[in-house]
Amino acid sequence: MVKRRNIFVTVIAVVCMLMSLFAVLTGGGLTAYAESPVSSSDGTYSVPVNLKGLAMGAENFSSSATVEKSGENYYMTFGHSSSISDMVLESGNMQTGYTVRTANGWTYYTYTMSAERLQSSLSFSAYINAMSRDVSFTITLNLANGTRTGDYVDVGERPAEYVPVIQTTAGNSYEASRGSVFPIPSATATLGSENLDVSISAYYMQGGEQTEVPITNNSIMLDNVGEYHVVYRAESSTYLTNLGNPTCTEYDVAITSVAGGSTLAKFEDANGVLAEGTSLLASRITSGSSVYTTAADKMASIADNFEVFGVSLVGTDGTQVTPGGNITLYLQANMTYDRNEVAVYHMAEDGTLTELSADGYGRYVKFDSDKTGTFIVCIPGVAFVMPMWGYAVIIVACILVVAAAITVTVVLVRRKKKSKETQ
């Protein structure tokens, strides 16, 4: 009886082992297995990210990337926490096509890539907010250990692998008086070494509807109070979107037409150097434009807190005017800036900075200048950033202190023990 029972138990154990082995070999509907998105079917994959290129702060970047495959098109999503900003995928003299979204305090970029680039090292630059410094790092995707998580989801048209870069002095947003003329700043566009044409259109937004605005002599009339838009567009058939359309980039400039004049900036012409009827056109320039990028680079060693403004003067015929002498400009800077400490710089087109004498004037910053163009208002001062070797020195010092403390303790214990033995 005991022998039969032992045989029965053995058979059951063997059956269980065979079932477990079968489940492992077939997936059993439960066990995931490694699968590279490059050599597999269309779908969505989770892929481990090798962050060894980061000296520190790896926890602020995605430890795994999402790779979507649709035919020959690949889309890689990689992100960072709120401790990081201005992350850029280095692409030589090109601009990789991407979309961006935020979720739960993280920012995620979805880049369009070829299979070849997906399998290579990817170089990034990013700004660490707490340390006030830029870092460069390289990541690789462990594609061989990817895991399929689902089918590819069609979300419509996606950017091409590379997109045009539009360069213009135009700011992101302007304030101007109703009835004035808005002269449209010029723009150029490139795609690597390819020079592209830039088309410009304009519309007026009212009640959620767009009404086309005619462009005459490269300017538009701000006939109504409200929001106008000027849209720059560049495209090329060198690269195509997933729908087969030419790659393209658009740069949108918003102009708020107000009654009674702009509150963002104003001017006084006490010396009478301007023709009657001259009006001021002011813009606040933020990240996303080449002008802001240059200004941020120049401010890196001067100020952590700064704002960039674009100022131009316009004649009654819509042409830009250059002052024949000093005029007084008032810029509405950040209200948190101490007006007793504020400084103003004029930035020339080549990036040269000239500091101007400035004073606080209520909510404005007041200064004299015979120039228009780009002005930077800042609070001078850059926070101290511990260099990487500084952290190494601190660690070594701590180790030496601990080692010294242990040594002293051991010596004292031995002396005490020896003293007891001699008594």
Give an account of the 3D structure:
With 423 residues, the protein is an alpha+beta fold. Helices cover 17% and strands 43% of the residues. It has four helices and 31 strands. The chain has helices spanning 2-26, 115-118, 290-299, 388-422, and strands at residues 43-50, 64-70, 73-80, 84-89, 95-96, 98-103, 106-113, 122-128, 133-141, 147-150, 162-163, 165-168, 173-177, 181-183, 187-191, 194-196, 199-206, 209-212, 219-221, 226-240, 246-258, 265-268, 279-285, 305-314, 320-321, 327-331, 343-347, 353-356, 358-361, 364-369, 373-379. The strands form six sheets. Strands 13, 17, 18, 20, 21, 23, 24, 25, 27, 28 and 31 form an eleven-stranded mixed beta sheet that branches. Strand 24 and strand 25 form a beta hairpin. It is flat, with a radius of gyration of 31 Å. Residues 18-31 and 384-392 have low confidence and may be disordered.
Major sheet attributes: 11 strands, mixed
Shape descriptor: flat
Helix content: 10-25%
Termini, distance in Å? 75 Å
Which structural class best describes the helix and strand composition? alpha+beta
Strand content: 35-45%
Q: Residue ranges: pLDDT <50 for 5 or more in a row?
A: 18-31, 384-392
Q: What would you report as the Rg, rounded to the nearest angstrom?
A: 31 Å
Q: What's the total number of strands?
A: 31
Tally the helices.
4
**Average pLDDT figure:** 85
Question: Which helices and strands appear, and what pairs or packs with what?
Answer:
Elements lengths: L1 H25 L16 E8 L13 E7 L2 E8 L3 E6 L5 E2 L1 E6 L2 E8 L1 H4 L3 E7 L4 E9 L5 E4 L11 E2 L1 E4 L4 E5 L3 E3 L3 E5 L2 E3 L2 E8 L2 E4 L6 E3 L4 E15 L5 E13 L6 E4 L10 E7 L4 H10 L5 E10 L5 E2 L5 E5 L11 E5 L5 E4 L1 E4 L2 E6 L3 E7 L8 H35 L1
Parallel strand pairs: 13-21
Antiparallel strand pairs: 1-2, 1-9, 1-10, 2-3, 3-7, 4-8, 5-11, 6-7, 8-9, 12-15, 13-23, 14-19, 15-16, 17-18, 17-20, 20-21, 22-26, 23-24, 24-25, 24-31, 26-30, 27-28, 27-31, 29-30
